Amino acid sequence: MQSRRRAKSTGVRIVGGSWRGRRLTVPAGTEVRPTPDRVRETLFNWLAPSLPGAQCLDLFAGTGVLGLEALSRGAAGTTFVERDPVLVRALEESIGALAAEAQVFHEDALEFLASRPRRPVDVAFLDPPYATGLAQVLENLVGWLAPGHLVYVERPVERGGRSLGDAVAAVPGVRLLKHGTAARVAFGLLRRADAE
Which sequence spans correspond to the domains of the chain? Predict the structure, then answer.
C-alpha cells in the first residue's frame, strides 16, 4: 500500500460485523491508504454469501482492515502478509486486541506466494502498491486459490487511461465479476475462469 506520509497516528474503523466500530491504528510515518469505508461496505455486501467459514489471504495487508473486516463478518481465518515492520507490529497488536483467528507474516507478498506451501484460500484481498503490476501478483496467486474463490483487487482510477476492466482483461484466464469506483479508487471482484 502506498500514499503520502502521515504526520501522526490515525485510525481506520471496522464498518460491520461483530467488531463493528472498532478502530485500527494507522501508525505515524507509514505509507498506507486504507480502503475507504464506502468501498468496504460495497465489497463486503458482495462477499456476504461467501464469507461464513472462509479462509482469507490479505496480501499487502497494511493496517489489515480488509482481512479483519472479513473475520468480523464470519470468515474462519485470515493470513496477513506485510513487509513494513511498523505495520506488522500494529497489525499484531490489533489481532491480539480482537483475539482474532489470524496469522501475520512479515514478508514481501510476492516472495511469500513463491516460497510458502500453498494453503487454499476462498477469498484473497489484493491492494498492492500502485506501481506493482496486477498481472504478476495474480499469476503468483494461482496456486493458492480454492475452487470457487473470489479475489478482490483495488487500483487507482486512471484518467484517460486503462480501466480496472482493461487491467483484468490483460490477465489470461481471469474474469471480472463485479466492479465499482469511489473517488480515485477502482475496485472489483474477480475469479479465474477455470474455477467456475
Answer: 10-195
Q: In what order do the strands lie in the sheet with 174-182?
A: 102-106, 77-82, 55-59, 121-126, 145-156, 185-192, 174-182
DSSP string, 135-173: HHHHHHHGGGEEEEEEEEEEEE--TTS--HHHHHHTSTT
User: What pLDDT does 159 receive?
Assistant: 66
What are the cell numbers at 79? 493470513
Task: Kindly report the three-state secondary structure assignment for every residue of 44-62.
Answer: HHHHCCCCCCCEEEEECCC
Q: Which fold has domain 10-195?
A: Rossmann fold (3.40.50)
Residue 196 grid coordinates = 467456475
Question: Closest by alpha carbon to 58, among 47, 48, 69, 72?
Answer: 69
Within 10 A of 190 (CB to CB), how many other CB atoms are there?
24
Q: How many residues does the chain have?
A: 196
The CA-CA-CA angle for residues 146, 36, 183, to 5°, reads 110
What is the grid cell recorded at 167? Answer: 487491467
What is the H or E stretch that residue 2 is in?
none
> What tens digit of pLDDT does each residue of 19-78 get?
999 999 888 888 787 888 899 999 999 999 999 999 999 999 999 999 999 999 999 999
Q: Characterize the bridge pairing of strands 77-82 and 10-13.
A: unpaired
d(C-alpha 120, C-alpha 86), whole Å: 28
DSSP 16: S
